Amino acid sequence: MSSSAFGLNCTLTPSPTASSTQKMLDLILGAIASHGVATSSARVVDHDVKPGVTADEGNGDEWPALRKRVMDADILVMATPIWMGQPSSIAKRVTERMDAFLGEIDEHGCYPTFGRVAIVGVVGNEDGAHHVTAELYQALADVGFTIPAGSSAYWVGEAMGDVDFKDLDKVPKKTTETINTLASNAVHLARLLKKNPYPAPK
User: Fold this and answer.
1) Domains, the chain, ranges and CATH?
2) Model confidence at 200, in pLDDT bands (50, 70, 90)?
3) pTM higher than 0.90, yes or no?
Protein backbone atom coordinates (compact mmCIF):
# COMPACT_ATOMS: atom_id res chain seq x y z
CA MET A 1 0.00 0.00 0.00
CA SER A 2 1.62 3.26 -1.15
CA SER A 3 2.07 6.10 1.30
CA SER A 4 3.22 9.70 1.06
CA ALA A 5 4.64 12.34 3.38
CA PHE A 6 4.60 16.12 3.06
CA GLY A 7 6.87 18.45 4.98
CA LEU A 8 6.17 22.06 5.96
CA ASN A 9 9.33 24.05 6.65
CA CYS A 10 8.33 26.87 9.00
CA THR A 11 11.64 28.71 8.89
CA LEU A 12 11.64 32.51 8.71
CA THR A 13 14.30 32.34 5.98
CA PRO A 14 13.08 32.51 2.35
CA SER A 15 14.56 30.32 -0.37
CA PRO A 16 17.19 29.86 -1.64
CA THR A 17 19.10 30.76 1.53
CA ALA A 18 20.30 27.70 3.48
CA SER A 19 18.06 26.81 6.41
CA SER A 20 18.83 24.68 9.47
CA THR A 21 15.12 23.86 9.59
CA GLN A 22 15.29 22.60 6.00
CA LYS A 23 18.27 20.42 6.89
CA MET A 24 16.29 18.85 9.75
CA LEU A 25 13.23 18.42 7.55
CA ASP A 26 15.27 16.81 4.79
CA LEU A 27 16.81 14.36 7.26
CA ILE A 28 13.36 13.36 8.54
CA LEU A 29 11.89 13.03 5.05
CA GLY A 30 14.93 11.03 3.98
CA ALA A 31 14.40 8.61 6.85
CA ILE A 32 10.72 8.31 5.92
CA ALA A 33 11.59 7.76 2.26
CA SER A 34 13.84 4.85 3.25
CA HIS A 35 10.61 2.98 4.11
CA GLY A 36 9.33 3.29 0.55
CA VAL A 37 7.28 6.45 1.14
CA ALA A 38 7.09 9.24 -1.44
CA THR A 39 8.08 12.61 0.07
CA SER A 40 7.90 16.30 -0.80
CA SER A 41 8.09 19.59 1.07
CA ALA A 42 7.44 23.31 0.91
CA ARG A 43 9.00 26.32 2.63
CA VAL A 44 5.93 28.17 3.91
CA VAL A 45 7.59 31.60 3.97
CA ASP A 46 7.94 31.39 0.18
CA HIS A 47 4.15 31.40 -0.09
CA ASP A 48 1.61 34.14 0.64
CA VAL A 49 -0.21 32.47 3.52
CA LYS A 50 -2.71 34.99 4.84
CA PRO A 51 -3.51 35.33 8.55
CA GLY A 52 -6.84 33.85 9.58
CA VAL A 53 -8.62 30.69 10.63
CA THR A 54 -10.52 29.71 7.48
CA ALA A 55 -9.57 27.28 4.71
CA ASP A 56 -9.25 30.14 2.21
CA GLU A 57 -8.75 33.79 3.17
CA GLY A 58 -9.00 34.98 -0.46
CA ASN A 59 -7.01 37.83 -2.03
CA GLY A 60 -4.27 35.58 -3.37
CA ASP A 61 -4.06 33.37 -0.30
CA GLU A 62 -1.73 30.47 -1.06
CA TRP A 63 -2.69 28.34 1.94
CA PRO A 64 -5.37 26.37 0.01
CA ALA A 65 -2.72 24.82 -2.26
CA LEU A 66 -0.50 23.93 0.71
CA ARG A 67 -3.50 22.60 2.61
CA LYS A 68 -4.34 20.31 -0.33
CA ARG A 69 -0.81 18.87 -0.17
CA VAL A 70 -1.27 18.31 3.57
CA MET A 71 -4.55 16.51 2.98
CA ASP A 72 -3.17 14.43 0.09
CA ALA A 73 -0.39 13.06 2.33
CA ASP A 74 -0.56 10.26 4.89
CA ILE A 75 2.16 11.85 7.04
CA LEU A 76 2.65 15.54 7.80
CA VAL A 77 6.08 16.69 9.00
CA MET A 78 6.15 20.15 10.58
CA ALA A 79 9.63 21.56 11.09
CA THR A 80 10.29 24.80 12.94
CA PRO A 81 13.11 26.81 14.45
CA ILE A 82 12.94 28.04 18.03
CA TRP A 83 12.58 31.80 18.46
CA MET A 84 12.42 33.23 21.97
CA GLY A 85 11.55 29.77 23.25
CA GLN A 86 8.57 29.49 20.90
CA PRO A 87 7.71 27.89 17.55
CA SER A 88 8.25 30.35 14.72
CA SER A 89 5.51 32.79 13.78
CA ILE A 90 5.20 30.84 10.52
CA ALA A 91 4.49 27.61 12.43
CA LYS A 92 1.88 29.40 14.51
CA ARG A 93 0.23 30.77 11.39
CA VAL A 94 0.05 27.25 9.94
CA THR A 95 -1.65 25.89 13.06
CA GLU A 96 -4.04 28.85 13.07
CA ARG A 97 -5.04 28.06 9.49
CA MET A 98 -5.58 24.43 10.47
CA ASP A 99 -8.25 25.60 12.90
CA ALA A 100 -10.60 25.46 9.91
CA PHE A 101 -10.56 21.65 10.12
CA LEU A 102 -12.66 21.91 13.28
CA GLY A 103 -15.47 23.44 11.23
CA GLU A 104 -15.38 20.47 8.85
CA ILE A 105 -16.15 17.68 11.33
CA ASP A 106 -18.89 15.61 9.70
CA GLU A 107 -22.24 14.58 11.11
CA HIS A 108 -20.67 11.41 12.49
CA GLY A 109 -18.03 13.31 14.46
CA CYS A 110 -15.15 12.44 12.10
CA TYR A 111 -12.49 15.06 11.42
CA PRO A 112 -11.25 15.46 7.81
CA THR A 113 -7.73 14.82 9.13
CA PHE A 114 -8.52 11.51 10.83
CA GLY A 115 -6.16 8.78 9.69
CA ARG A 116 -3.28 11.17 9.02
CA VAL A 117 -0.12 11.10 11.10
CA ALA A 118 1.84 14.20 12.14
CA ILE A 119 5.39 14.51 13.46
CA VAL A 120 7.57 17.47 14.39
CA GLY A 121 11.19 18.52 13.87
CA VAL A 122 12.80 21.38 15.82
CA VAL A 123 16.10 23.24 15.60
CA GLY A 124 17.54 26.12 17.60
CA ASN A 125 20.46 27.58 19.47
CA GLU A 126 18.77 27.55 22.85
CA ASP A 127 16.80 25.13 24.98
CA GLY A 128 13.08 24.83 24.40
CA ALA A 129 12.66 21.93 21.97
CA HIS A 130 10.31 20.06 24.29
CA HIS A 131 8.17 23.15 24.83
CA VAL A 132 7.96 23.85 21.09
CA THR A 133 7.12 20.19 20.39
CA ALA A 134 4.39 20.25 23.04
CA GLU A 135 2.78 23.33 21.50
CA LEU A 136 2.75 21.87 18.00
CA TYR A 137 1.68 18.35 18.97
CA GLN A 138 -1.18 19.74 21.05
CA ALA A 139 -2.41 21.82 18.11
CA LEU A 140 -2.01 19.00 15.60
CA ALA A 141 -3.83 16.51 17.83
CA ASP A 142 -6.60 19.04 18.45
CA VAL A 143 -7.34 19.28 14.73
CA GLY A 144 -7.38 15.51 14.23
CA PHE A 145 -3.87 14.30 13.43
CA THR A 146 -2.48 11.21 15.15
CA ILE A 147 0.90 11.43 16.90
CA PRO A 148 3.16 8.34 16.89
CA ALA A 149 5.24 7.12 19.81
CA GLY A 150 8.69 8.58 20.38
CA SER A 151 10.36 11.93 20.82
CA SER A 152 10.22 14.68 18.26
CA ALA A 153 13.40 15.02 16.20
CA TYR A 154 15.36 18.00 17.46
CA TRP A 155 18.74 19.62 17.84
CA VAL A 156 19.59 22.58 20.06
CA GLY A 157 22.99 24.17 20.28
CA GLU A 158 24.70 25.94 23.12
CA ALA A 159 22.66 28.76 24.66
CA MET A 160 23.71 32.11 23.17
CA GLY A 161 25.93 30.13 20.79
CA ASP A 162 26.72 30.89 17.16
CA VAL A 163 26.72 27.39 15.62
CA ASP A 164 23.68 26.47 13.55
CA PHE A 165 22.47 22.97 12.76
CA LYS A 166 23.12 23.54 9.07
CA ASP A 167 26.78 24.25 9.84
CA LEU A 168 27.50 21.00 11.68
CA ASP A 169 30.05 18.77 9.96
CA LYS A 170 28.25 15.70 11.28
CA VAL A 171 24.76 15.14 12.64
CA PRO A 172 24.95 13.91 16.25
CA LYS A 173 24.38 10.17 16.60
CA LYS A 174 21.51 10.62 19.05
CA THR A 175 19.72 13.01 16.69
CA THR A 176 20.05 10.53 13.84
CA GLU A 177 18.76 7.68 16.02
CA THR A 178 15.77 9.76 17.11
CA ILE A 179 14.96 10.72 13.52
CA ASN A 180 15.09 7.09 12.42
CA THR A 181 12.83 5.92 15.25
CA LEU A 182 10.32 8.70 14.68
CA ALA A 183 10.24 8.07 10.92
CA SER A 184 9.78 4.32 11.37
CA ASN A 185 6.95 4.77 13.87
CA ALA A 186 5.24 7.40 11.72
CA VAL A 187 5.28 5.17 8.63
CA HIS A 188 4.08 2.15 10.62
CA LEU A 189 1.22 4.09 12.19
CA ALA A 190 0.19 5.70 8.90
CA ARG A 191 -0.02 2.29 7.23
CA LEU A 192 -2.04 0.85 10.11
CA LEU A 193 -4.51 3.73 9.95
CA LYS A 194 -4.81 3.42 6.19
CA LYS A 195 -5.79 -0.23 6.50
CA ASN A 196 -7.96 0.31 9.58
CA PRO A 197 -9.45 3.83 9.64
CA TYR A 198 -10.91 5.30 12.79
CA PRO A 199 -14.55 4.28 13.21
CA ALA A 200 -17.24 6.92 13.37
CA PRO A 201 -17.98 7.84 17.00
CA LYS A 202 -21.14 6.25 18.36
Assistant:
1) 4-195 (3.40.50.360)
2) confident
3) yes
